[in-house]
C-alpha cells in the first residue's frame, strides 16, 4: 500500500493539481525525487506531508480537466490524541474528509511515528541522538518496537546509556532489513499539551488505488514537544539571536556567463544506491569541473559528503553550497538527523570553500516545517555555525507555491538570499524550448515575495519518461530545455542532477531515474 499525506491547505487544491516531492539524505536518500507543496504556520503537527512521490508538478497554470465521483473513505480507530488521522482511499476519485476536533485535558505522551523511504539492505533508524563533551550517563525516554506473536508494536521505554567519552551517540536505534525500496515506519516520542485541536475539512483528488491520507490537527495552544532531551551533563543548546534589522548587503552569488552550479549526491548510480568512494567522488567532481561548472550543491552530510566532496572541490577549484536536509516532520535542531548534520558541518568547517548554506529543501512544501519552525531552525543553524567561524549567507529553498501561499515574512527576514526549486517539466503547458522563460518567471515571483536577490537551487529536465501535456521527456528535449534555461538565466541556477539514479522509484512519470544531465555537456 502506498501512503500519501495530502495538504490540508485550500491553496494546494486551488491549483488543480496535487504533487508530492521529497529529497533526502543517506538516512532516506530514496526521497530525492521531484516535487510538491503545503504548509500551515503555527500548527502542532505541521501540515499534511507526503510519504510517497506523486509526480504532477507545481501548482500553477493548468487545472485538471476531469473530476471523479466521490468515493467513501474509511477512517481507522478512535482518536484520543491529535495524531494525524489516517483515511484510506481504496479507489481513485475525489474525497471529502470532514473537520474533526479533539480536546486534550492533560499533557499526554504517546509513541507516534514518522516514515522514511530506504533502499534495499540493512538500515539503522530511529533512536535518540545526543552530544556529550565528557563521559556522561544519559537517562531518556526512547521510542522502540516490540514483537509478540508476529505483531510489531511501538512502545516508549526509559533507558540509561553510558557515554564513555566525548562524542555523538545514538541511543536505542532500530535495525531493519528490507529486500527492496521500502517505506518504513520509525517510532518517535511525541508529547501533546492540553488544548483544543482541529483537523480542518479537506477535499482532495486521489489518482491511485489504496492510498492512505493523513490529515493533521492544528492548534492555537502550545505545540507538542518532540522527543525529550536526554538528562545528562551535556551542554544546553545555544539559543539563536533574531536576525539583525540592518543586515549587510546581500551576497553576490552565481556564475559568469551561462553556467554556475550542479547538484551532487555521493550515491552510486546502481540500483542499490550505495555510497561512492572518495576516488569515485573525485572522478565525478573532476568531470563537473571539466564541463565548466564553478560550484557544487550538496544536500546534506551523509555518505562522507563533506570530507570527500570537499576534498575533490578543493582539488579542482570548485566552490560549494552546503545544506541541512529535513526529510520528515521534526524541524528542530533537537531532531537527531538535523543535529547530526549541524555537528558534521561544525566538525568539517572548511568555510573557505562555502558560498551558501541551504537550511531545508522544500521543507515547507512537504509539511516538514511550519514557517515559525523553519525560521527558528535557520536562526539556530546560523548561531551554531557562527560559533565555529562561518559567517556566510543562508537561505532555504522551496517550490514557488510554498513562498506565495502563506505568510513567509519571518523566513524572508532570516535568510540572506531567496531560493526556489523550479522544474518546467512538471508544468504541462511548457515546451522544452520555453523552459528558460518558465524558470525565470518562477524566480521573479519569489524575489518579489522576499524583496531579495534570488537563485534557483534546482532545475532540469528528464531524458526519459512520460509526456506531461506538451512537456515530453527525452534526450533531445532535455538538451533543448537546458539550453533554454542557460540562455535565460544560466548564471543563477543549479542544474539537477549530475547522473541518472537507478535506485529511485520511476514514479508516475516514469522519469525519476532519468534527471542526470551531464551528457548535455559531453560528460
Automatic annotation (TrEMBL):
Signal peptide: 1-19
Entry-linked InterPro entries: Beta-glucan_modifiers, GH
Function (record text): Beta-glucosidases are one of a number of cellulolytic enzymes involved in the degradation of cellulosic biomass. Catalyzes the last step releasing glucose from the inhibitory cellobiose.
Gene Ontology cellular component annotations, sorted alphabetically: cell surface; extracellular region; fungal-type cell wall
Ranges of compositional bias, category Low complexity: 222-244
Organism classification: Eukaryota, Fungi, Dikarya, Ascomycota, Pezizomycotina
Species of provenance: Parachaetomium inaequale
Keyword RNA-binding found: no
Keyword annotations from UniProtKB, A to Z: Cell wall, Glycosidase, Hydrolase, Secreted, Signal
PANTHER family: FAMILY 17 GLUCOSIDASE SCW11-RELATED, GLUCAN 1,3-BETA-GLUCOSIDASE
Any one GO molecular function term: glucan endo-1,3-beta-D-glucosidase activity
Entry keyword Transmembrane: no
Location within or outside the cell: Secreted, Cell wall
Region named Disordered: 220-252
Gene Ontology biological-process entries: cell wall organization
Name of the protein in question: Probable beta-glucosidase btgE
Assigned protein family: Belongs to the glycosyl hydrolase 17 family.
Amino acid at each position: 500500500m502506498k501512503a500519501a499525506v495530502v495538504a490540508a491547505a485550500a491553496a494546494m487544491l486551488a491549483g488543480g493539481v496535487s504533487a508530492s516531492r521529497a529529497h533526502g539524505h543517506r538516512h532516506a536518500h530514496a526521497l530525492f525525487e521531484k516535487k510538491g507543496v503545503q504548509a500551515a504556520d503555527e500548527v502542532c503537527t505541521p501540515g499534511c506531508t507526503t510519504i510517497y512521490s506523486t509526480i504532477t508538478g507545481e501548482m500553477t497554470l493548468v487545472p485538471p480537466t476531469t473530476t471523479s465521483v466521490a468515493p467513501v473513505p474509511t477512517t481507522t480507530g478512535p482518536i484520543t490524541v491529535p495524531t494525524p488521522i489516517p483515511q484510506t482511499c481504496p479507489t481513485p476519485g475525489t474525497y471529502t474528509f470532514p473537520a474533526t476536533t479533539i480536546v486534550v485535558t492533560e499533557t499526554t505522551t504517546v509513541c507516534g511515528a514518522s516514515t522514511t523511504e530506504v533502499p534495499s539492505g540493512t538500515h539503522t533508524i530511529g533512536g535518540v541522538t545526543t552530544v556529550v563533551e565528557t563521559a556522561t550517563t544519559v537517562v531518556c525516554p526512547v521510542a522502540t518496537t516490540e514483537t509478540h506473536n508476529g505483531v510489531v508494536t511501538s512502545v516508549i521505554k526509559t533507558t540509561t546509556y553510558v557515554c564513555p567519552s566525548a562524542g555523538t551517540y545514538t541511543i536505542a536505534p532500530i535495525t531493519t532489513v528490507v529486500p527492496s525500496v521500502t517505506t518504513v515506519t520509525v517510532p518517535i516520542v511525541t508529547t501533546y499539551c492540553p488544548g483544543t485541536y482541529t483537523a480542518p475539512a479537506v477535499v482532495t483528488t486521489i489518482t491511485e488505488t489504496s492510498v492512505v491520507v493523513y490529515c493533521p490537527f492544528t492548534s492555537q495552544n502550545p505545540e507538542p514537544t518532540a522527543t525529550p532531551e536526554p538528562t545528562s551533563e551535556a551542554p544546553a543548546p545555544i539559543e539563536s539571536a533574531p536576525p539583525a534589522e540592518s543586515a549587510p548587503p546581500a551576497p553576490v552569488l552565481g556564475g559568469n556567463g551561462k553556467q554556475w552550479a550542479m547538484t551532487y549526491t555521493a550515491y552510486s548510480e546502481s540500483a542499490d544506491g550505495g555510497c561512492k568512494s572518495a576516488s569515485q567522488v573525485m572522478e565525478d567532481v573532476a568531470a563537473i569541473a571539466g564541463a565548466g561548472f564553478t560550484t557544487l550543491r550538496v544536500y546534506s552530510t551523509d555518505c562522507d559528503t563533506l570530507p570527500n566532496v570537499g576534498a575533490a572541490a578543493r582539488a579542482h577549484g570548485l566552490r560549494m553550497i552546503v545544506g541541512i536536509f529535513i526529510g520528515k516532520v521534526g524541524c528542530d535542531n533537537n531532531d537527531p538527523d538535523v543535529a547530526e548534520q549541524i555537528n558534521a558541518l561544525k566538525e568539517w568547517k572548511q568555510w573557505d570553500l562555502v558560498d551558501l548554506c541551504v537550511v531545508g529543501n522544500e521543507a515547507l512544501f512537504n509539511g516538514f516545517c511550519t514557517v515559525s519552525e523553519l525560521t527558528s531552525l535557520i536562526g539556530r543553524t546560523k548561531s551554531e555555525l557562527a560559533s565555529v567561524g562561518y559567517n556566510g549567507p543562508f537561505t532555504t529553498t522551496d517550490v514557488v507555491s510554498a513562498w506565495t501561499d502563506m505568510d513567509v515574512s519571518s523566513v524572508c527576514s532570516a535568510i540572506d538570499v531567496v531560493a526556489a526549486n523550479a522544474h518546467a517539466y512538471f508544468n504541462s503547458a511548457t515546451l522544452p524550448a520555453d523552459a528558460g522563460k518558465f524558470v525565470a518567471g518562477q524566480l521573479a515571483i519569489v524575489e518579489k515575495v522576499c524583496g531579495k536577490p534570488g537563485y534557483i537551487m534546482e532545475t532540469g529536465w528528464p531524458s526519459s519518461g512520460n509526456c506531461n501535456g506538451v512537456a515530453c521527456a527525452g534526450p533531445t528535449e532535455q538538451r533543448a530545455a537546458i539550453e533554454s534555461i542557460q540562455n535565460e538565466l544560466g548564471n543563477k541556477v543549479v542544474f539537477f542532477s549530475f547522473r541518472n539514479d537507478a535506485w529511485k522509484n520511476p514514479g508516475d512519470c516514469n522519469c525519476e531515474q532519468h534527471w542526470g544531465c551531464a551528457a548535455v555537456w559531453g560528460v
